[in-house]
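Customer ticket, subject: "Can you confirm the structure for DNA repair protein RecO?"

Message body: Hello, I'm evaluating your service for our small team and ran a test protein. I'd like someone to confirm that this is what the system normally returns, since I don't have a reference to compare against.
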Amino acid sequence: MAGRPSFRDRAVVIRTYDFGEADRVVVLLTRTHGLVRGVAKGVRRAKSRFGSRLQPFVHLDVNLYRGGSLATIAEADTVAYYGAGIIEEYDRYTAASVVLETAERLAYVAAEGDPGLFERVTEALERMQTTTHPTLVLDQFALQAMGAAGWAPQLFDCAQCGRRGPHHAFHPAVGGAACHECRPSGSAEVEEESLHLMWLLAHGHDDDARAIAEATPYLESEAHRLTMAHLQWHLESKITSLKVMDQR
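Agent reply: Thanks for trying us out. I re-ran your input and got the following:
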């Protein structure tokens, strides 16, 4: 591949699909180059050098050659394998799949590579391996990622007029919590403790959030529903893997 510029980066495998007879396209979220689609040539053959590494939930050190719509993956060394503890446990697997799909959608929105998004994904996947509350890990990732994107929901004061909270209505169209006068048609009627739980997750108060979720499980469910509604509103599309997760 002489003459073709190359680059090295850290990456997480988001998803893969077969390409041609022996190749595979690998969608990577990289630390500094954003979302990259790379083709791994010949990896579906039995003697492939690194085919087993190019799977979702794997953190890689990759060397790629730039191409047109597809880069070429020349090297891929495993940094961490997050699949252990995730792929064999349904709740963790489905929540982790939503993390990956959400990261891909958010990477499209970012104008260029966002190292912060990459770090949030790897942290969420690492925690997902052992957590007893995969929904909390997912929601914390989503809330913090939305905060970095400028989409953080207002969780106390009214998002429309600023009236002091707490309030008991929530709608993504107004930016989150809404007072009685500002709440639009179709607003969700919510417990203020659900919004408090979301605030704890967004600000990294994991122990306090877990204590609330364990004491009052329905607050965890409501916070999850509100978080995902807010996320999908701003992405302007449904998250496919979320439908699978919420079937449980």
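A couple of notes from the result: Residues 90-245 form a domain with the de novo design (two linked rop proteins) fold (CATH 1.20.1440.120). The mean pLDDT is 91. Feel free to reply with more questions.
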